[in-house]
Amino acid sequence: MALDSIDRKILAALQLRGRMSNADLSEKVNLSPSACHRRVQRLEQEGYIRDYVALLDARKLGVPTTVFVEITLQGQADEVLDAFEKAVTRIPDVLECHLMAGTADYILKVVAENTEDFARIHRQHLSRLPGVAQMQSSFALRTVFRTTALPL
Asked: How crowded is residue 69: how many other Cβ atoms within 10 Å of its Cβ?
């Protein structure tokens, strides 16, 4: 199904305020509440809306340090990739893992309390990942811009 301009307005509004009431959403996109509700249900059923989540403050939760870890594996065989991917999903401090094209095979986004905590995560988890040949970590000094909203 193709998205029309109203679907895009609904998705844009919900990306910014996922807990917006249907009444507020319908007013924002100029639809009746019942028509708006039907559209949101359809967008959910068709998979455009995957889920609703709360975005938490990493600083308040004590994990203000973000580290990007580039990982190069020993090989590209399916069993090596599968073993790595299965193991990395079990590390709670890893927020994202991306299979890459380029110099690294994977890039991980890791959160930690500080550099000492990252050293613990590295020692207890990252250094034990299967198939790793090389690892390079880069600490984010400051987040300039962050969004979860996709361009519509």
From this structure: 22
